Amino acid sequence: MNYDRYNFSPGERILYLGFGAVLDAAIAWTFYRSLPVFFILLIPSEIIFLRHIRQNLIEKRKYELSLEFREAIMAVLSSLNAGYSVENAFIEAGRVMEGLYGESLITEEFRILTRRLRSNEALEKILLDLAWRSGIEDIADFAGVFSAAKRSGGDFTRIIRKAADSIGDKMDIMREIRTSISARKYETKIMELVPFVIIVYLSLSSSGFLSSLYHGVTGTVVMTVCLALYATGFLMAEKITKEAEKV
């Protein structure tokens, strides 16, 4: 599995295409009150919405894998302390992860690891492959250090303990950051709905107030500029939030 890609299931695709169509309908009605505009914007809206959802799902999956990988490394460390060899410690950690998480990302990865180990592939090669496929910095760092230690005959118990502590500290910081900005994310979502709410309110309470904006070239240009400004603000807010989570 390449964690930088996400393939929608048929059910997910239908669901998100439906959401995209609803979003397109909201934009077409709010800014243009035009059925032709709905059909003109339908395909671009669906493409942009699916890309946005796919990126969010990729980031969510990577975050979950990072959390689970830290627990797996702790399980490997426990197995090493119990006297297992390095390879068997990873196999035993896979069993622990299956009991802890059931069907999950890390469980599937450790099943793959176990099969490849039993096919006599080198453990460091398997870990480097996971690091490449996941695109996660912590896993890449661990795989690199482990591979170097394997070649030089380092103290694996000490290395894995240090890696687990490092990943744990980083995950704790990430949790604190996510908690601290969760309120800001909620406020951002509300602000993103404000333009729609204002226009709907004015349309219902004073229908003639906005009528000139939905007729003629001037009104279309004005509303298009408003839509462009809204889209720019939305993208900036999303980018700022994502960057804050990466700090």
Quick structural overview:
By secondary structure, the protein is mostly helical. It has helices at residues 10-31, 35-81, 86-101, 105-118, 123-134, 137-152, 156-205, 216-246. The protein has one domain (10-246).
Flag low-confidence runs.
none
Mean pLDDT across every amino acid position: 84
Number of strands: 0
β-strand percent reads under 5%
Report the span from N to C terminus: 27 Å
Tell me the radius of gyration: 25 Å
The helical percent reads: over 70%
Name the structural class.
mainly alpha
Largest sheet composition: none
* Cα shape: elongated
Number of helices: 8
In sequence order, what are the helices and strands, one letter per element? HHHHHHHH
Number of domains: 1
Can you offer a commentary on this structure?
With 247 residues, the protein is mainly alpha-helical. It has one domain (10-246). It has eight helices and no strands. It has helices at residues 10-31, 35-81, 86-101, 105-118, 123-134, 137-152, 156-205, 216-246. Helix 2 crosses helix 3 (86-101). The longest helix is centred in the last third of the chain and has 50 residues, at 156-205. It starts with 9 loop residues before the first helix and ends with a helix. The mean pLDDT is 84.
